[in-house]
Model the fold of this input.
Amino acid sequence: MAEPITEADREQVRRLHAEGQSRNQIARTIGRSAASVSKIARERGLTFSGGARVAAATEARRADAAARRELLADESLDGALGQVSKTTAAENARDARDHATAARALTEVHARVAELARHTGSGSAGGSMLDKLADALLGPANGGDHDGG
Done:
């Protein structure tokens, strides 16, 4: 069972908060849980400004992920188009099939990344163009039409 919060705990929280320490830093310093520090802070009308830092860091991470998805989509598209050109230049049927399979796999990567970008509001709309090209060359990925039919 946790020890009751003391006036010394409350004073330490007030002092460390005034020094600009975060809730978790204070908890480590005084040997209390973050929940206890939050409770003391609420009692004293103190707030922690870490939320703004966390929101900024989260937004930066989202922007970085969107840029990485865009790069992956572009590289998948380039790779698929390269495989398509190798398919037409292949010396035998087996090589042509292998290049076509690689093109299809890269097309699927691009389509999935483009779909994710559409759901997250980032990225290019190039996926639908590549999907149509792949369907024309290789047939639809799911065996039916592109609308799921």
Notes: Residues 123-127, 142-149 have pLDDT under 50 and may be disordered. The longest helix spans residues 50-89.
